[in-house]
Amino acid sequence: MSEEINLKVVFIGNPGVGKRTIINLLLELKSLPIMAKNIPESVMKKGQLATATDIYNALLVSTTPELISSGKHTSFVQNANLIVFVVTKFRNMLACKQLINKLSELSPDAEFCVIANKQDLEESLDPTAAMKFFDLPTIGISAIMPEHREALVGFLNEFIK
Q1: Distance (Å, rounded) from C-alpha 16 to C-alpha 107?
Q2: How far is it, in rounded angstroms, from Cα 150 to Cα 116?
Q3: CB-CB contact of 156 with 138 (8 Å)
Q4: Which of these, 116, 110, 161, lies nearest to 137 by C-alpha position?
Q5: Domain count, the chain
């Protein structure tokens, strides 16, 4: 096993797209249903993220495009290794895409990618459409399905090497 690497991954998306569920999936934590009125604007979780070849001491951050645009959570994004846009519908994508230049300034060494979440739903966003819109690598998953964890970890591992 390789030596442990510190890693900061920031998940950005509108409320309800599944950012926290993705973090829980990656850290192999059980997701608990949360009442909409009790959802925090941002979440930070520390834990070990194990891939096939490495174990990362990871800080996983969840926030919204609005909080970054307003300047309230720019510190959450600074020095990120990986910035992941989480989208579920076309209307979720524009707010994220408009942040790319600002995010590049805050984390100049960060890699970017996209997760088209909630693929278990009939009206889910086609991952190919998201990839074309962002011009970034994209994976389609359903974060509520534990069997998608391996594919997600493999996808993210491509950007953190």
Answers
A1: 25
A2: 16
A3: no
A4: 116
A5: 1
